[in-house]
């Protein structure tokens, strides 16, 4: 991705040599009271932080979209109207909680020690333990990247428990261990012990009831044990157990006689498909594995097992102990190999994760004034060096996540392989597309830098809720959309996609937000004669009768 720098004059009153149209756009954007309050609120939060963020690299900083989302959530909660004090109070409390979650003041000693060597980026569906407590909810496809704090047996039973923590939370949570993992919990040589990292998914949450107890996770079969090749014990395990059986040594006759294999290979590809049978349609994940000799073999996950694929990343090394060996024909697949692997009842999985590094996206402190409202640098010039560089995560496909980008994104800045984008602008056109699976609307969104088509995918059962809560969108309405992804369409044009169920996705119609109308700090009161035809932000009219 091209690195872009932004420079501007931070003095609002400075004379600028621009044509009349450009000056009109700047004045219009500058006068948007909602955007001005966003900038003001962020400057206040930064001033409250003081020197606590001196060593922050900006990746966990106050993202522009985070502030806008929190303000709009508060407006929805306080439909009768808000004041600057209410908004700043809510923002301050939310930011303090987030800072506590991201960097607890008294982290567990074990987590703190392991965190020094933690270099992985989160998996796409990863949730934190703190978020489970906050929402009292956990979806089935959520991923927990956890560290075992303790392993124990419930008194008077044979029920094994694990106490889990993670690198981003101040809370811990207990999980009932599935019986297929009991052999791995021995006090002397068990691998599931204090300090071991694991990935797990497919968890159900047992919430606390009757005002006593605390939430726990019910047993799940979908658990992967992490190994570190730089640790002696893990290196010995890999060498002794998993490096003696190449794919070429697998024999179906030996399997039929009771032989089992321990295999070690790199994940080359992860693909999804559906198998249509007479009375059902079965979901399947096809994972292509490559061993040290370059031999390829398919590893299949069926039905609910596909949740395991949430724990894998292309490039990671996967160790399979006692995988089920099947004939490719029985796997409903057409491959050049005679055999394939499946997740059997005795299969154990170990993972050496692929370490993804973050990309440094260099920007100067102040975005171009031609594109937006007053930059935060104008509030506090002492922050100049702090945001001179922003670290943004990039995945193995080159997609960069802008969820925590500290500045507002504009249409002119959009490029392919950008995700976590938020846009704020006016609706200039609406088209409802034909789609049998989802309700899809294409909205043309315009800001002062340009306009772009945004394709919104709503689940049918939630569409009515969205229309009732957000108001029916019309031409000229001001909207805020977060969780956007930029991609290339079949016509080789830049396309912006939004899916209602994606993490971080929100769609808010500011023009139908009661709190915006009732809050003088978020709108501008104008006379009818003062309104420009091209005004792209919300205004209220005053009439004299």
UniProtKB/TrEMBL annotation:
Pfam families: CDC24_OB1 (PF17246), CDC24_OB2 (PF17245), CDC24_OB3 (PF17244). It comes from the Eukaryota. Residues 34-158, 163-292, 413-539 form the Cell division control protein 24 OB domain. InterPro entries: Cdc24_OB1, Cdc24_OB2, Cdc24_OB3. This is Cell division control protein 24 OB domain-containing protein. The gene is LOC100807658.
């Amino acid at each position: 991705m091209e690195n872009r720098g932004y420079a501007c004059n931070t003095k609002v009153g400075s004379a600028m040599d621009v044509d009349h149209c450009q000056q009109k756009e700047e004045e219009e954007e500058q006068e948007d009271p909602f955007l001005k309050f966003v900038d003001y609120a962020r400057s206040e939060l930064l001033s409250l932080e003081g020197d606590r963020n001196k060593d922050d690299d900006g990746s966990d900083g106050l993202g522009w979209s985070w502030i806008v989302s929190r303000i709009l959530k508060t407006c929805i909660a306080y439909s009768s109207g808000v004041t600057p004090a209410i908004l700043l109070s809510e923002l301050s409390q939310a930011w303090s909680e987030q800072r506590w979650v991201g960097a607890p003041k008294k982290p567990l000693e074990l987590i703190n020690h392991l965190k020094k060597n933690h270099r992985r980026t989160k998996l796409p569906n990863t949730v934190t333990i703190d978020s489970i407590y906050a929402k009292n909810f956990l979806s089935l496809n959520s991923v927990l990247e956890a560290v075992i704090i303790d392993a124990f047996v419930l008194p008077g039973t044979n029920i094994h428990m694990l106490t889990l923590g993670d690198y981003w939370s101040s809370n811990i949570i207990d999980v009932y261990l599935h019986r297929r993992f009991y052999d791995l919990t021995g006090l002397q040589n068990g691998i599931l012990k204090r300090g071991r990292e694991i990935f797990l998914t497919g968890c159900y949450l047992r919430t606390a009831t009757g005002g006593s107890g605390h939430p726990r996770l019910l047993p799940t079969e979908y658990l992967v044990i992490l190994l570190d090749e730089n640790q002696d014990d893990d290196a010995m395990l890999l060498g002794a157990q998993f490096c003696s059986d190449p794919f070429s040594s697998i024999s179906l006759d030996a399997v039929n006689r009771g032989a089992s294999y321990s295999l070690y290979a790199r994940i080359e590809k992860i693909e999804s498909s559906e198998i249509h049978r007479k009375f059902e349609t079965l979901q399947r994940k096809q994972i292509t594995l490559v061993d040290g000799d370059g031999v390829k073999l398919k590893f299949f996950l069926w039905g609910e097992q596909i949740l395991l694929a949430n724990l894998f990343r292309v490039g990671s090394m996967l160790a399979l102990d006692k995988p089920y060996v099947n004939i490719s024909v029985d796997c409903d697949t057409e491959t050049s190999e005679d055999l394939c692997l499946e997740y059997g009842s005795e299969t154990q999985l170990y993972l050496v994760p692929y370490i993804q590094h973050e990309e440094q996206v260099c920007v100067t402190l102040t975005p171009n004034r031609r594109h937006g409202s007053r930059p935060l640098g104008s509030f506090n010039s002492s922050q100049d060096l702090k945001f001179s560089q922003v670290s943004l995560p990039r995945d193995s496909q080159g997609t960069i996540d802008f969820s925590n980008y500290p500045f507002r994104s504009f249409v002119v800045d959009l490029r392919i392989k950008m995700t976590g984008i938020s846009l704020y602008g006016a609706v200039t056109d609406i088209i409802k597309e034909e789609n049998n699976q989802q309700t899809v609307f294409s909205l043309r969104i315009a800001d002062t830098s340009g306009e772009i088509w945004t394709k919104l995918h709503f689940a049918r059962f939630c569409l009515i809720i969205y229309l009732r809560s957000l108001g029916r969108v019309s031409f000229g309405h001001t909207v805020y959309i977060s969780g956007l992804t930029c991609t290339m369409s079949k016509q080789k044009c830049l396309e912006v996609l939004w899916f209602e169920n994606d993490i971080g996705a929100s769609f808010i119609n500011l023009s139908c937000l009661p709190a915006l109308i009732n809050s003088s700090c978020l709108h501008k009161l104008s006379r009818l004669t003062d309104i420009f035809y091209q005004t792209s932000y919300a205004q209220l009219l005053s009439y004299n009768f």
